[in-house]
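Re: the request from the purification team.
They wanted to know what the chain is likely to look like in 3D before they choose a buffer screen. I agreed to run a prediction and write the result into the notebook, where they can find it.
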Amino acid sequence: KVAKFEKQVLNRLRSIPYRELLKDAIRRYVRALDQHDYNATIIQLWSVLESLTATVTDSYKVTIRRAAMIHVDYNFHRQVLTHLKDYRNSTIHAGTGTEENEILVFQNKRYVESMILFHLRLGSSFENFDKCTEFLDLPVEVTRLRDRRTLLNRAIRFRS
């Protein structure tokens, strides 16, 4: 099963314009999980999430919004990601840790894996990573997407 999955991933990567970025993120993800220190793992996984959401230099709000966008229950995942961000920040700035570290590692792991799978599934449909991040910045509500489409169509007609 693992060999089959690896072959599928390698085939998918070939068609993704930003495959090198994604390969690097996968390598960093695996290295993060090799850590014995849960705090270090949490920090490294969050860093991979920032890479996959193109938010290394952006605010945490953007990272959280983009990472939550790919999930059906956006608000729930936004709250969980906010909690993970808060914990990550307290770990970096105060060196604190809790007994829940293992749970937090698995929660972080889940979001990084979701973003990796998102990119593997849809990455080939974007001409570059910037277009992908534009997609991640779209509203999650269908009514807002339809409103945006109406405005874009109106703008196209205006400019034409």
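For the purification team: The chain has a mean pLDDT of 93.
Please add any questions underneath this entry.
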